[in-house]
Amino acid sequence: MASTLRTTRSRQKELEQLSPFELKDFLINLARDREKTSTAIMLNAGRGNPNWIATEPREAFFLLGHFAMSEARRVFDYGIMAGLPAKPGIARRLRAFIRENRDAPGAAFLDSVLAYGKKKGFDPDAWIHELVDSVVGDNYPVPDRMLVHTEQVVHDYLMKEMCDGRPPKGKFDLFAVEGGTAAMCYIFDSLQQNGLLKQGDKVALFLPTFTPYIEISRLERFNFQIVPINASSLRADGTHDWHYPADEIAKLADPKIRMAVTVNPSNPPSVAFSPVEMRQIIGIIRKNPDLILVTDDVYGTFVPDFRSLMAEVPANTICVYSFSKNFGCTGWRLGVIAIHEDNRMDRLIANLPNRERRRLHERYGALTLEPEKLKLIDRMVADSRDVALNHTAGLSLPQQVQMALFALSHLLDRKDSYKQLTMKLVHDRRDALWRGLGLPLPPEDKQRAWYYVELDFMVWAHNTYGDEFCDYMRRNYEPVDFLFRLAEKSGVVLMDGGGFGGPPWSIRASLANLNEADYASIGQAMVEAANEYVAAWQAGEKVQSGPHGVVPQLGVGGQPAPADRKVASDQPPPEPVATRSAKKAGKKAAGKAVGKAAKGAVKKASKKAPGKAAR
Questions:
Q1: Of 26, 372, 381, 526, whose CA is between 20 and 30 Å from 578?
Q2: Which residues form the signal peptide (predicted)?
Q3: Which strand (E) or helix (H) includes residue 206?
């Protein structure tokens, strides 16, 4: 029969209480152990760090650095010390530098950067000096929220990519931050500091979602009442399409819900709001105008013609955007918070009770003589440095330069060549995964980003083998057993979809961080692992999760598991009901599907216990 796992069921039950990002580390250790004892190579499709980088904006950054050093030495040069780049005539000198180095990587891009500034009406010396002085990093960020020209460039990028080139009226104020995760911290903190959220408030989370949104909401400081908005829509064949039914979105009409948080496109399913879903949300905002929307749009560039909530309901929306995934720059820590200049949050602060306004006057009184006029986004900047250190707030200047160059690479790319290439990469990897699984591709959905996939083991189990097999799995295994089996037996690391607030037996795979052929191998490994369960079920036996009493030590020690990290949905995870014909077809195909190993196991068992094997 199937081999035994090192990790017992009781140990699995403890570990599945962890965040999926922490659980992943255990799986990596198991997969590495597998590498030591076999020729198999670990395939880690867990964390979504892309295995590509955008080259042109990086080449331009480094070439700009060379020019900046020549400008510094031009002021004075003591060998190991130089001056600060001077502003007068710097644009003219950059043009000359580009001509002299026209064959250098990044030169043509820098020439286009000059041209873009001219098109925008920037003063040439002011524009280039901002970039040159900042790439050297010789000053504090001024303005602290974001550099003047850089903010306009990144604003253009967001209007093109997050608003499909059709932005709403007015403009957005931007706050450059240390990646999307810093944005999350600053937003939650400032909303509470400014009385827009209170401990214990109702907060809606569109699920599944990036796990930290769940975990932050449960911190003692916030202790929000989570209202789950479940992506529980199913296709006719019982598979998930990961969209939100109308009755789920309708929960947002509750005036007691103070804030709704979405990752759009979602994580892990990677599905953006459909036009129908977007229209329903817009309609609810008209009836519930004080609802604050936080939208995390990091995967938006992977969906053609993507439109964020910031484009449709700008007054209520706080947008989080990270450059990490699209440009392959997780190590740069580049993100931005965008809030429309005419927004609901500022009006809500202005209408707070007198006692709250007096408290806030005292909190921000050292920054301005009229703290009541301070916008929420500027309060976020101050709050990010506990107000007292507001004068040193802001993202480092070299980071802002690289952010501007990343943004410019899309603004200058009229054919969207880079964006099309990133989409093709993940689509090709999706196709390889499905080939390995031996399954037909899911129906076309223009809203799917395909940066991740979320696969529900129980939907496959039910549609293929029916209720009896599903009951067998629930009785005998933890939902994470499949992940442990993949790691131990095949060296494949995937993530627990249940930890993202999805169905408990679901699995997240990133399509961004491995090569195409690897995903075919992952699909095959998943089939082999699933067939172990099927063979054991058909033989009337059990695939062992681990030897009784053996608890492998994986480098974490014996600390107790934290409280259950899963969001308790107000409805059970969707279990599709197969038609009678589907059930019959599944049972008829069972013997063929499990392969030779399964057939042999059934035959062997039937000699000893024919009745049991028949069951």
A1: 526
A2: none
A3: strand 202-207
pLDDT tens column, 524-567: 999 999 999 999 999 887 666 654 333 332 222 222 333 333 34
Cα distances (Å, whole numbers) of residue 371 to 194, 361, 441: 12, 6, 56
134 contact partners, CB below 8 Å, separation of at least 6: 147, 150, 397, 398, 400, 401
Q: Do 182 and 40 share a structural domain?
A: no
Domain boundary among 524, 539, 554: 539
| Residue 483 structural domain | 9-48+416-539
pTM over 0.90: no
Q: Give me the number of domains the chain comprises.
A: 3
Amino acid at 341: E
**Whole-number pLDDT of residue 600:** 44
Q: Which two tokens stand for residue 318?
A: 């706080």
CA distance 266 to 229: 12
Give SS3 for 352. coil
SS3 call for 496? strand
Query: Could you tell me the CA-to-CA distances from 59 to 107, 380, 399 in Å, in that order?
Result: 8, 33, 15
Tell me the C-alpha distance between 286 and 284, whole Å: 5
Query: Do 92 and 241 fall within a single domain?
Result: no
Are residues 179 and 213 both part of a single domain? Answer: yes
Same domain, 131 and 184: no
Terminal-residue alpha carbon distance, the chain? 17
The pLDDT tens digits for 57-90 are 999 999 999 999 999 999 999 999 999 999 999 9
What's the token pair of residue 191? 């909303």
Q: Is residue 156 domain-shared with residue 256, that is, in the same domain? A: yes
Q: Report residue 345 as tokens.
A: 């949050």
Which of 75, 109, 139 lies at the terminal end of a domain, its last residue? Answer: 139
Q: Show the beta-strand stretches assigned E in 278-388.
A: 292-296, 317-322, 335-340
Q: Are residues 385 and 459 in the same domain?
A: no
Contacts of 471 (CB under 8 A, 6+ apart): none
Q: Are residues 64 and 88 in the same domain?
A: yes
Q: Which two tokens stand for residue 14?
A: 């403890």
Contact predicate 398/404, CB 8 Å = no
